[in-house]
Structures are given as C-alpha cells and as structure tokens.
C-alpha cells in the first residue's frame, strides 16, 4: 500500500521554504506521493455549512491557501520520484481547455508524476466567486473531463457541448502518462459513485468512516463492471484527515484517523486489510501542527507507524 503526505499549503506556515522542506523530507522518508487541496475563499457569512466539522465552521487557516497546481509545480523541481496529487481539484470551477493545458504541463515538467483527484465541491459562495453556476455541477464535471480527455489524446480535437466549445484545432501538448494521468474522483452518493466507475481510474474519499469504505467502493466497482471495464479498473486512494491526540479516544463515536498514534496505526492497518491502494495523510488541521518543524516531525511519526 502506497503512502502519501500533504504539503503545508494552508495557513501561516504555507510558503516556498515550507513546501520544499516537507516535500524533500517526505521523499527521504520513503513516501510515495505528496498532495494538495483546493480551497478558493473563506466566506465570512457562509451559505452552506462546512461538511467536515461538527458545527459547520471552516478552519481559520482556510483564509490563506496556496494554489494547488502552483504548489505542486514548485516542489516538482525539488523532488525526483514523489507522485504529485490533487485531493481534490473542484473541477467545475475551471475551464477544461485551460486546465488540460496546466495539468499536461505539470505532468511533462515533472517527468510524468501527476495524479489528478477531482470533485465537485460543496460551497455556493466559492462557486459564485468562481463565476460558475453550482446547479448542474455534476454534468459540468463530466463534460469537462470529456474535453480534457479529448485534448490529452493529442493531434486534432474539436468539441461542441452544452457548456464548452472547442473549435477544430491541433493540440499537441499532452501529458507524458498515456493516455492520461490517473484521474481519481471524490464521491459520496450512489449517482456519483456510478460516475467513478464509468469515468475514473479510482475513488478518492475523504472523511468517510473506514467501516463504510468497502461497501461504497464495491458500488463504484460494480458500476465499472457494468460499463464494460475490468473489476480491477479502479484504485482506492484515501485521504486520511489526521487528528493526532496525546490520549486515545473512546472507540464509540470516534472518527477514523482521530485519536492516539496507536489508534491511527489501527486505522491504517484496517485499510491495508481491505486492499486500499494508497493512503495520504492530511495533517494540516491536526492540533499543534503550526510550523514546518511540526509537519516534518509528524510526517516521520506517521510514516513509521504506517509501516507496522
């Protein structure tokens, strides 16, 4: 099972030196990948609650977030083998032609190390700021991915759809990875899990209890089989939102990857048992993680405990 770690991309610690130090240390330790998230703004009067916290409030650090692709490009030049992943890009915010160019450029410049996690987001405030309607975002994401796939084939391309038009063109900037970088989708409902099975290379959940993952992943796999794809068409790549505490939490009601280091080790072992292909640890909101040294220390502790 592969292991990944988050870049220090949010809050006051986020900056050029911190990004490079964490990426280099992750590579030295033996991590397989490094990841970024996508957050556009911090609405002071949000119209929808943040789905991760109990009271629906956003973490304060979300008022300062580095661009995910620029952060990955910055560390790509300072690392040699780490895969570079997004967990996740909110796909409907982006023009797919421009995004296809950016992603192909990053894959090319990094020597074919890009992995693309995408989703549709949850915040109406961010959609408004991006200038994109939130209604129909699932269909918009599907068409966006179709446009990107067409561009990544290279050569002649044209598209005329409900939301996007690409005039007949020759486009030869393509990713190193063929036919495309791995595309993982976040999904939490039956309809979107079906989209994972039909269109993606894997499922990339965040915040889903470990006990619920096998059943949900099985639904995506069944959709892949129904679409004529093999039973092994999908990877399971899990973002583990870590809340490391000094003392263990009661098991009843405990969220996965919250509690003592021993409890987190048990969570990792459980995902290994169900056949997860990769876990990447997001520690940016774990208590006490404020500085680059905190990130470096926690990256090492989590890597060691994940080795069993």
Description of the molecule:
It is a single chain. By secondary structure, the chain is of the alpha/beta class. The protein is built from nine helices and twelve strands. It has helices spanning 16-29, 68-76, 96-109, 124-130, 137-152, 190-199, 213-226, 261-273, 292-306, and strands spanning 2-6, 33-36, 83-90, 114-119, 155-160, 165-171, 182-185, 202-203, 235-241, 243-244, 258-259, 278-282. The strands form three sheets. The protein has an eight-stranded parallel β-barrel with strand order 1-2-3-4-7-8-9-12, surrounded by five helices. α3 packs across α5. The radius of gyration is 19 Å and the shape is globular. The termini are close together.
Question: How is the topology of this model organized?
Answer:
Blueprint: E1 2-6, H1 16-29, E2 33-36, H2 68-76, E3 83-90, H3 96-109, E4 114-119, H4 124-130, H5 137-152, E5 155-160, E6 165-171, E7 182-185, H6 190-199, E8 202-203, H7 213-226, E9 235-241, E10 243-244, E11 258-259, H8 261-273, E12 278-282, H9 292-306
Helix pairs in contact: 1-9, 2-3, 3-5, 6-7, 8-9
Major sheet: 8 strands, parallel, barrel
Poorly predicted spans: none
Shape: globular
Encode the helix/strand succession as letters.
Answer: EHEHEHEHHEEEHEHEEEHEH
Distance between the termini: 12 Å
**Quantity of strands, as a count:** 12
Strand order of the largest sheet: 1-2-3-4-7-8-9-12
Strand content: 15-25%
Helicity, in percent?
25-40%
For this entry, what is the oligomeric state of its chains?
single chain
Radius of gyration: 19 Å
Task: Give the mean pLDDT.
Answer: 96
Structural class determined from secondary elements: alpha/beta
Specify the number of helices. Answer: 9
């Amino acid at each position: 099972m592969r292991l990944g770690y988050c870049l220090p991309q949010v809050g006051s610690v986020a900056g050029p030196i911190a990004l490079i130090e964490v990426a280099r240390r992750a590579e030295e330790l033996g991590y397989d990948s490094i990841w970024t998230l996508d957050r556009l703004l911090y609405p002071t009067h949000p119209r929808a609650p943040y789905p991760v916290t109990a009271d629906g409030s956003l973490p304060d650090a979300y008022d300062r977030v580095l661009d995910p692709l620029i952060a990955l490009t910055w560390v790509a030049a300072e690392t040699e083998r780490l895969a570079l992943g997004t967990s996740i890009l909110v796909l409907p915010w982006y023009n797919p032609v421009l995004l296809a160019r950016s992603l192909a450029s990053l894959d090319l410049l990094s020597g074919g190390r890009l992995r693309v996690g995408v989703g549709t987001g949850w915040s109406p405030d961010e959609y408004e700021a991006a200038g994109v309607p939130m209604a129909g975002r699932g269909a918009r994401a599907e068409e966006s991915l179709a446009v990107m796939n067409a561009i990544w084939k290279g050569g002649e391309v044209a598209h005329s759809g409900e939301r996007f038009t690409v005039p007949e063109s020759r486009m030869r900037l393509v990713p190193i990875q063929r036919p495309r970088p791995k595309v993982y989708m976040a999904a939490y409902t039956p309809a979107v899990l079906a989209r994972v099975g039909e269109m993606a290379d894997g499922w990339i959940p965040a915040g889903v209890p470990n006990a619920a993952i096998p059943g949900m992943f099985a639904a995506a796999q069944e959709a892949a089989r129904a679409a004529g794809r093999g039973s092994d068409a999908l990877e399971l790549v899990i973002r583990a939102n870590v809340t490391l505490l000094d003392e263990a939490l009661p098991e009843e009601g405990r969220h996965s990857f919250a509690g003592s280091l021993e409890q987190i080790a048990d969570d990792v072992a459980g995902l290994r048992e169900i056949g997860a292909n990769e876990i990447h640890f997001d520690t940016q909101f774990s208590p006490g993680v404020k500085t680059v040294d905190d990130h470096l220390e926690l990256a090492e502790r989590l890597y060691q405990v994940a080795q069993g």
